[in-house]
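Sanity check. The docking grid for pyridoxal-5'-phosphate depends on where the pocket ends up, so I'm generating a full predicted complex first rather than guessing from homology. Inputs follow.
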Amino acid sequence: MVATAPIARPGILDIAAYVPGESKVPGGLSPAKLSSNETPLGPSPKAIDAFKAAAAELERYPDGQATLLREAIARRYGLDAARIVCGSGSDELLGLLARGYLGPGDEAIYTAHGFLVYRIAILTNGATPVVVPERDLKTDVDAILAAVTPKTRMVFIANPNNPTGTYIPIEEVRRLRAGLRSDVLLVLDAAYSEYVSRNDYEAGIELVATTPNTVMTRTFSKIYGLAALRIGWAYCPPEIADVLNRIRGPFNLSSPAIAAGAAAIADIEHMERAKRHNDQWLPWVESELKKLGLAVTPSVANFVLMHFPEGRDKTASGADEYLKSQGIIVRKVGAYGFPNALRMTIGSESENKRAIDALARYLKGAA
Ligand SMILES: *Cc1c(COP(=O)(O)O)cnc(C)c1O
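Predicted complex below; grid placement will be based on this.
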């Protein structure tokens, strides 16, 4: 008998595995890691203390309901804890939403430069990704509505979006919701919402509270500085929370994550410090990049997308190589449809200055 290997379900081998931001540089250089939108301030010291205290009971299973964390989130934002579902990062929740609501024959929409985890979640469940154009590198509500077919089951938007850093006003999100059939699930990925200060922006809490078909996802990986612990949460209509709770792993968050997350979200002062740091350095980085002659997509998040001039010898990949040789790691975004752009996270003061100085050397031809 000829041995045959197991065959993955249709669609699985169409998935391009997610490539995380790099973290290593050559030689003994201490890297400035500006590739994954982490915070240069680190987590709240209270979160670190709570994490360490959790080490005393590692033989115990965690609370499968993550009650401490859900209640801390509910208190912070005035929400109903029963409608919060926590996940091992918001990536897990995006995957669970797709698993709960998508199957073969279904379509799910995301935008041209949208977060690639959506595509993976859609294909994993045998559904068909439908990618719609953006306008000025922003989510285009009309383009999404025009792409809806009877097979559409889900729409994912990141607001603000990664890697563009752009956002759409809550009025536009409401218009999208109103234009979608009521059986189409709208997922609002608000991973960077804490960084946004715009009068016309909202993460979507009210929309979730007032519609039966909208979910908002959030993360502790960005402004809260806990990416290593993998903590995300979703605010859901009760029926959708019920679906997620049926299909998630029964202990999908570890006890140290639950404890650290609860402490982090209560430390408002620390979060505000991270926000102020970003408010100070994001405009500085943007203006320095422009002085170097690069086009910069206006960002409301903690990173910037810089575009290299077309048809010149100074390219995004050349800059990426040079930066790496200088111990600075940024993010190539070719997989997001930007072959000649780089995404840079706002780092510490010295990291930002190192990155700008190195880019200046590269662009002036020293490299
Ligand atoms: C970083 C990021 C997330 C968060 O992922 P986690 O799994 O919570 O670490 C979600 N969505 C977008 C758009 C992101 O950039």
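Relevant for the grid: The chain has a mean pLDDT of 96.
Also worth noting: The pocket of pyridoxal-5'-phosphate is lined by residues 37, 89-91, 115, 158, 162, 189, 191, 219, 221-222, 227, 232 (CB under 6 Å).
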